[in-house]
Amino acid sequence: MTKKLQILAFLFTLSICNGQIRFEKGYIIDNTGTKTECYIKNSEWRYNPIEFEYKLTETGSIEKGESYNIREFTIPNVFTFLSSDIKIDKSSSDLKTLSQSKNPNFEERKVFLKLLVRGDASLFEYKDSNASLYFFKPKESEITQLIYKKYSNSEGKIAENTTFRSQLWDELKCEDISLEKTRFTRYNKKELISFFSEYNLCSKSENVIYSNRIAKDWFKLRIKSGINSSSVETQQLNSNPAAPNDRRLEAEFDKNTSITFGLEAEFILPFNRNKWSFFIQPLYRSYNSSSITGFPEQEVLLDYNSIETFIGIRHYVFFSSNSKLFFNAATILDSPLSSIIDYENSNDVELQSTLGFSIGLGFMYNDKISIEFNYIPRREILENFLTIGGGYDSAQFILAYRIF
Q1: Any idea what DSSP says for residue 96?
Q2: CA separation for the pair 287, 291 (Å, rounded)
Q3: Vertex 225, ends 2 and 280: CA angle to 5°?
Q4: pLDDT tens for residues 250-266?
Q5: pTM (2 decimals)?
Q6: Which parts of the chain sit beneath pLDDT 70?
Q7: Which domains does the chain possess?
Q8: CA distance 102 to 200
Q9: Is 136 helix (H, G, I), strand (E, B) or coil?
């Protein structure tokens, strides 16, 4: 078991090193307005980037783009950043170091802004280690910061400058948007995107919401089938003191290969570019074997059929738009179906529900077909008995096909 875990850990680390740094097809627009198709390194910036790397061809040399020489860089359906000369509030958002001034502390800078909504009114985000700030561009106007600032008032209490609401009301009037809605809009990405989208629809303009593009395909259903290779052994826990060599309940069954099949429901989590998901996977599997116990010998038959329900998380490592590696970790609820250990000369034992876990890796092509390997370490299958214990472990090779 330890050796298999080490192999999986090594493969995971190797794939992270090779699969996370990716140049994806996109384009740049320079200061002359020239658009160039290229391959942009998607570094998944936590904060707005100062610079980025790109290649003119897949095998070309790496070049750097910065806000002074690139007007826009885009990976379609992932992000768009626009270079802009702006006045940005550099007031601290740390409650321990709040300014005593209500007014913003503006600083002129040239930065890359992330586009969230495009239309007659466009919305942008600038995020650094201090705060997330939002900027807007009404039709035929310059990009301006939406002002929101926490400060310490004369009484030493935390107060808020919510000028952004009056900016929205003054600049983005439309018959379907009431003063009440503007007054209760909060300074966060979700509510501002909703406000700008509603305004663009009201004004009958283009309305493209960039931040929602990645998470549309959030639910997936697959049929799965494969081969299950497993082994079972039983131990006698409490020997008869009068017969210390009694091992009549102990047996080691041969490794058994059988077909497993079922369904998987996967739910893509809305962060980190769809690289994490939660899944539920019920699989039917069977194990039928026979053996001879220890002294005194007797024949024992094992009929072990169950539904294993995997509940776990999955992490994807993308290699291209069509191929990706994934890693699973799951808890397993095993529900036996009329399963029994049938001893020739001793009382039969009925198997009951148990918990286990699994780890695995797989490869998926075109988000449609996948093959995976799962390893299920030894789990106790007779934990509710005083005189007998038993262990089960298995390895699975599974082929899956997405049907929804």
Answers
A1: G
A2: 13
A3: 70
A4: 888 989 999 999 999 99
A5: 0.60
A6: 1-21, 211-216, 238-246, 321
A7: 77-209 (no CATH), 219-402 (2.40.160)
A8: 31
A9: strand
